[in-house]
Amino acid sequence: MLTDVERSRPWSFSGKSGDLPGGDPNDVKAAPTFIIEAVVFDINCETSRLTNTSIFPFFMTLLLRTFRPSTFRTLVPLSATPKHLYQKSTPLSKNSTAAYQTSHTANSNAGALPKQMSSIPSLKLNDGNEIPFLGYGLGTARYKPDPNSPEDPELVKTVVQAIKTGYYHLDGAEVYGNEKELGTAIKEAGVPREKLYVTTKISGTKVQNTQEAFELSLKKLGLDYVDQYLIHAPYFANGSEADLQAKWADLEAIHASGKAKSIGVSNFLQKDLEAILKTAKIIPAINQIEYHPYLQHGDLVDFHRKHGIATSAYGPLTAIIRAAPGPLDGTYDELARKYGVTPGEIALRWVIDQGIVALTTSGSEQRLKQYQKIALFKLTPKEIETISEIGKKKNFRGFWKDKFAPDDWS
Ligand SMILES: NC(=O)c1ccc[n+]([C@@H]2O[C@H](COP(=O)([O-])OP(=O)(O)OC[C@H]3O[C@@H](n4cnc5c(N)ncnc54)[C@H](OP(=O)(O)O)[C@@H]3O)[C@@H](O)[C@H]2O)c1
């Protein structure tokens, strides 16, 4: 049963196009949540809380064993991804000690940096830049229907909370209507700009001047550069290769200006990528697609790997939320028990363990913290394969449904 609060959240998008909210929340079954009461190992927990527990020595042992540098190295299970595609960043950088910071509390913003997800590694893109493997999305549940309505302080608060919880990779877009709120949240969170990874996207359905749209996005965000600028979807081109190629050339010009460190695409199929690769001077750094076990897109991810294009996955929790119940429920529950996490972390780990960036979102601080537990385990290659195989028994698309025939799983 969904609670009233869950019912009021527009996070089911069945029947709607794109990553805009809509649909009936009652379609969606809440996934079971397994909280391991005995070992509430929160990587952001504060030492003071730990010392108050009778199992403090156990925690300390676990902490030391878990976070020594050699263990960090083993936390990036990218064996399923060709080596040329990724290179793990060094998680124990000068910032990473923040995982142990004890100074930050909900009320203390001044003087102390928010804690960071130092244990969440990054993926090295084909242009040498690094993108954190876990991102916080400003679309779907955070989408603002009227971009011209006054700034929404509640939305700003939610995003500030996400940043303070350690989500430094922020996935925005022109069409989410909330670039202003994202910009304000970035300022209020007090995290130095260079520590954040900010993406925005030009509308994928509207025909418009790219440079003007980009400058407007920067203005709304209050930033002088973004880490990543994407073409949200290929649909504006109406199948015209020339239009796709021209738009990509516009992004290349923006990249050359230094105002977008990486450029890429979203919702592109192989044919769309092939079209721009014919004339591209820069290979797209990434293709952001709906990706979960019930929508694996045939050979698309292999095509990305072949061309050095990274993949980022939106809707990574689909199998446990909007597409549940499904054939994977038992497997997710079993693996969640094995690793002492919730099915959500198993769903995220299945994405990340393939060298794919996962984009999620939540209004719940508790959930956001829970998802950081992905840093504490990894799936075995066999488990990844099992999920992939069982996932093929069901097909489900949650976004951009009006662009595909009901039996088209490309
Ligand atoms: N490029 C595109 O076309 C495109 C399309 C879609 C999305 N995106 C990007 O990807 C981001 C993430 O997409 P997404 O929202 O589909 O991600 P998701 O991770 O699949 O779903 C997140 C949603 O699920 C809910 N949720 C999380 N854990 C749950 C649980 N255990 N049980 C029940 N509900 C749970 C969250 O709501 P609570 O607040 O209740 O936790 C949140 O609304 C978007 O915000 C956007 O930035 C891009």
Structure commentary:
This is Related to 2,5-diketo-D-gluconic acid reductase A. It comes from Phialocephala subalpina. Belongs to the aldo/keto reductase family. With 410 residues, the protein is of the alpha/beta class. The protein has a domain of 271 residues: Alpha-Beta Barrel (TIM Barrel), CATH 3.20.20. The chain contains 14 helices and ten strands. The protein has an eight-stranded parallel barrel with strand order 3-4-5-6-7-8-9-10, surrounded by four helices. A two-stranded antiparallel sheet has the order 1-2. Strand 1 and strand 2 form a beta hairpin. The longest helix is centred in the middle third of the chain and has 17 residues. The site of NADP nicotinamide-adenine-dinucleotide phosphate has 32 residues, from strand 10.
